[in-house]
Amino acid sequence: MTEHATRWIGGLLGRDDLTRIDDAAITFGASWAHERAGWIVLAIIAASLVTGWFYLRRQRTGFAAGLTLSAFRAAALVLLILALAEPVLELSYTDRPKPLLWLLADASDSMNLVDDSETGSTGERSRADLVRAALVEPDGLAKRLANKFRVQAFTFDRPEGVRPLDLDRLATTNGGSQEGTGSQSSAERYSATGTATAIGSALDGLRRRYPAQDLSGIVVLSDFVQNAGSPATDAAEELGVPIFAVGLGRTAAADLMVELDAEPTVKKAERVTFTAVVRQNGLTGSTATLRLTAAPADRPAEVRTVGTKDVALETSSVLAEFAVTPEEAGRFVYALEADVLPGETIAENNTATRNVTVTDDYLRLLFVEYEPTWEWRFVKEVFHRDRLVGLRGFRTYLRSSDPAVRKTNELFLETLPPPRDEFFQYDVIFLGDVPASALPGRFAEMTKEFVSQFGGGLVVIGGPRFGPQALAETPLADMLPIVPDAGLQRRDASFRLNLTPAAEQFDFMRLGETGAENRAAWQNLGELPWYQPVRRVESTAVVLAEHPTDTTSDGRTKQPLIARRPYGAAGGEVVYLGFNETWRLRRKYGEKYYRQFWGQLIYRLGLGHARGADKRFVIDPLPDEPFQPDDEIAFTVRAWDRNFDRLTEADVPNGVLTAELIRRGAGDGETTPIALPMSRPGVFETRMAIYRPGDYRLRVIDPVTSEPHEARFSVADVSAERRVATRDAALQQNLANAVPGGRAYELDEARNLADDFDPPRRTRTTTELISLWDTWLVFGLFVGLLMAEWLLRKRVNLA
Predict the structure, then answer these.
(1) Are residues 542 and 407 in the same domain?
(2) Is 249 part of any domain?
(3) Which class for 25: exposed (0-12), middle (13-18), buried (19 or more C-beta within 10 A)?
(4) 320: which of 414, 522, 658, 704 is 20 to 30 A away, CA to CA?
(5) 15 lies in a domain?
C-alpha cells in the first residue's frame, strides 16, 4: 500500500502516527451471514434481478431511465442486506504513537495567592490564573506539549486522589479570548478551591487508577507546599518515570508565622513557661510584637492579656518565653498573636492557639521498692513537699517494711497490688530495685494495662542488688525501653555519664536554662560507681544518657543509662534508669536540680492523660486546630466501670451512649443529640461531618455516674493552604531528582519542556475491529440512494 493511502486510512481511523497496514479482512458479525456467506451473494443477486425486472419490464419508462432507477433501488437493497449481515473490518496495522504524558495541576487554595512582580508573574494575576493560562492559551504549556505528546491532564485538591481535566474541547480566538464551540472544557473552568496539597497521594492515585505502561513522564504544576497525604518523593519513585516539577510562587517572601508550645495540663498557682516560636522569611531586622492572651473556654469573651513581648527578628527562627502562673482552675484557650508587619503576603499564620487545662487536683504516685534506698528516701521527701503531689498523692509499697507499719501508716500499701479500683487511680508508678519473687504476676499484668490502656507512666530504676535482670522473665520485660539479660551482672567501675543529642528534646533532661548550665548540672553527679548493663536497646526507645565507653551486645551501641519509650495506644510512657544514684545531683546545689529532674519527669508522665478516677471515662482529645467545614470528625469515648473493667453492652442501655453537640456562635446556641454506639467493649465511636463554623462542645453522659463529660473543638473556614506563602523549592527539586531524567522548571521556563524532553516513540502492532454497518456514512448513503430514486421517478412521471 502506498504511503499516501496509508496516511488516508490513518486519518479515517484517527491515527496520524500510522506507519503500515499489515493486514485487512472483512468478516460478518450476524450469525446467519458468518456461517453461510453464500446467502449474502444470493440475496444480492436476487435483489438486483427483481429490481431490474421491476423497472425494465413492469414500468413504462425508457431503457436508460429504467436502468438508472433499478441501479438506485438495487444499490439501496444491497446496502440494506450488507447492513443486516453486520460487516466488520479486521485491520492489523503498525503505528508509532506519541509518548503519553500526565499533566498534574495543583487546584488547592494556595493557588489563589497573588505573588508580586519579582516572581515573574504579571500584574495582579494569581497562581491559579497562571495555571489556567498554561492550560488553555494557544501558546500555553498544555498546547505545546500536546503537539508532541498524548497529554492526559488532572488536578489535585484534596487529601486523596485526582480529578480528570478535559483539554479536548478548547477553542481560543487569535486575540486570546476563550470561546468554546460548545460547552467549556474543564480546563477553562479550572479553579483553585481545594483544601489540601497532597502531591504524594495524587501520584499514588494516578498509579492505582490509570494504566501507566506507556507513560513517559509527569508534569506537575504546583507551589509544592505539601500539607497532607503520603510522601511525594516515595510516590514518584514508585511510578518510576521522570517528574518535571514546574514551580509557582516565590521561593522567598516576607512572611511571619507563629507557633505556641504549651503543656496541655498545668497546675493551678504553679509557674509554667509557654514558648512562642516565631519563624520568618524576608523580615530580618524587623521587630515583631507578640501578645499572649487567655480566655476561659466557656467564656471566650473574657479575654485577658497574659504578656506582651517585642522580639527582634535576627534569625529565621526566634524563641520567646512567657512565664505564666494560672490563678483559676478550668479549661482555657491561650492565643499567641503577632502584629502583621509591612510586606507580609498572608496574615492567617500570625495566630496560634492552644487549649490548656488548669487543674487543682493532685498527682497520685506509687513507689514500689524492696528496701529503703537513698533514691527512695529523697524521692519521697521531694514529693511530700511538692504542691502537685503532696502527702495525699504519694504512696509506697516497701517489701522489707514492718507489716504493722504497712497496716497502720497510710503512706504505705499493705499489699501489692492494691484493689483494681485503687490501683488504676494512680498516675505514675515507680518500680525500684525489686526481685521478681516480690512482684506478683497480677501486679505485672495490671501495670501493663495501666500504661497501655490508661496512658499511665512507669519509671523503672535499676538498683545495685537485682537490677533490670530481675525483670527479664516477667511480663514487665516487654514494656521496657531496654532488653534485659538475666545473665548480666552489675558493673563496678567509675564513670561519668554522657548525655545524647536526644536529651535536649525532653524537658526533664534540661536542668539548666542554658546549655552550659545544663552540662554543669549533670556534671554535678560526679563519677558514678556502678551501673546495670543490658543486652540491647528496644527498637522504639530513645536513649537520653549513655555510658561513655561500654557497649551493648552489638558492640556498637553504648550502654543506655537513661532511656524512654512509648507504650500502648493511650499515650503511656516508660522511663528506664540503669542506676539509682540521681540523689548525687543534690551535691552543692541542694534540691534544685534533683527536684527539677524528678518533678519535670513526674509532670510529663502524670499530666499527659486523665488523672485519678477520671481515667475510667475519657473522651479522646480533639485537636486544638480548627476543623474545616465538611470535615468528618471522629468522636471516641473509652469507658470502664467503677472497678476499671471495660463497659459491655450489659452496662449500657442498647449499647449506645447518649450525647449532645452544643454549638455556640454569633449569639445563638443550638443542641443536636447524637448517639455513640459501642464498637467494641469499652469503646464508643461515631463519625459526622459538621458544616457550620463555630465553637462546639461534645457532652457525653457517663452511664455509671450519670455525670456529663465534655470535649471542645471548633470549626472554622480557615484553610491550611494559607499558612505558608512561599513555594517549597526543596520538595520541588527532590521530586525532579526522584527518578533520573526529571527536572525542575520555573513557569516561564516550562515552555521549553517539549524541546528538552524527547523520549523515544514505541512501535506497536495493533489489531482493531471496525464496524462498517452502523455508521452515519452508511445511513446517509442509504437515505441518499432512496432520495435519488424518488427524485428520478418524479422526473419521469412515475407515481
Answers:
(1) yes
(2) no
(3) exposed
(4) 522
(5) yes
